[in-house]
Amino acid sequence: MIKGDLVELKPADPDLSGWIIRELNNMEQTKHQNKGIIPITIQQEIKYINKMNDSSTDVLFHIYNNTLVGSISLNNINWIHRSAEIGVMIFKDHQGKGYGKEAVGLIDYYAFNILNLHRIWAECFIENMAMNEIFRYFSFIREGTITDVYFKNGKYNDVYIWNKHWQNVKGNLESTIEGESK
Ligand SMILES: CC(C)(COP(=O)(O)OP(=O)(O)OC[C@H]1O[C@@H](n2cnc3c(N)ncnc32)[C@H](O)[C@@H]1OP(=O)(O)O)[C@@H](O)C(=O)NCCC(=O)NCCS
């Protein structure tokens, strides 16, 4: 549906829930996220994907490079304030290949140029070097730090708040909108 050079974002497919929960139940994969604390089942993930796909305030994509390599979402879309929160995950075996960076570029393009949002934002563990680098690259502004937000890895973790207004949009990745089909 939204195609870049490396990855394509397609509607989330509940039939692929098994691949998603394998990652979400992997504590190494989720060490920089408020996830992977309580184990989740395939049934719960199927329910979640169906709920997201029916939602008018969330958009969930699966990320493909031939095969499924992760997921990316805009959550809690507020159509009055035109804001949404970004979430992204690249599967452990596919990290470090540029997929996360391009997927964020594509969702950035989609948020501002297709959904006509005004602001997208995210919170990110301060130790999550790759993710913080991606937000910096796409001209998100680091507007603050919140301390002791999440108890993870045996300690309380601080997060950065990353924020981007449409005024900061420049030089987004060229992307091809290929219509609604998978
Ligand atoms: C964070 C995540 C999405 C990044 O995706 P990825 O595909 O592995 O990242 P990329 O290969 O696109 O690389 C991102 C950039 O971070 C840089 N980077 C990676 N590790 C780094 C480090 N330790 N210090 C500084 N920069 C680093 C890379 O060099 C790259 O920049 P470049 O293109 O200029 O070289 C992925 O690691 C992931 O899913 N992690 C688990 C879930 C998660 O943390 N999600 C984010 C929640 S906010």
Summary tags:
globular; alpha+beta; Aminopeptidase; 9 strands; 182 residues; disordered C terminus; single chain; binds coenzyme A
What does this structure look like?
By secondary structure, this protein is α+β, with helices and mostly antiparallel strands. The chain has one domain: Gcn5-related N-acetyltransferase (GNAT) (Aminopeptidase, 3-Layer(aba) Sandwich). The protein is 25% helix and 36% strand. It contains four helices and nine strands. A nine-stranded mixed sheet has the order 7-8-6-5-4-3-2-1-9, sandwiched between helices. A hairpin with a 4-residue loop joins strand 4 (67-78) and strand 5 (83-90). Helix 1 (17-24) crosses helix 2. The chain starts with a strand and ends in a 5-residue tail after the last strand. Mean pLDDT is 93; it is low at 171-182. The structure holds coenzyme A. Residues 29, 32-33, 88-90, 95-101, 122, 124, 128-131, 133-134 line the site of coenzyme A.
What ligands are attached or bound here? Answer: coenzyme A
State the CATH superfamily name. Answer: Gcn5-related N-acetyltransferase (GNAT)
Strand content: 35-45%
Instruction: Tell me the CATH architecture.
Output: 3-Layer(aba) Sandwich
Give a quick rundown of the structure.
By secondary structure, the chain is an alpha+beta fold. It contains 4 helices and 9 strands.
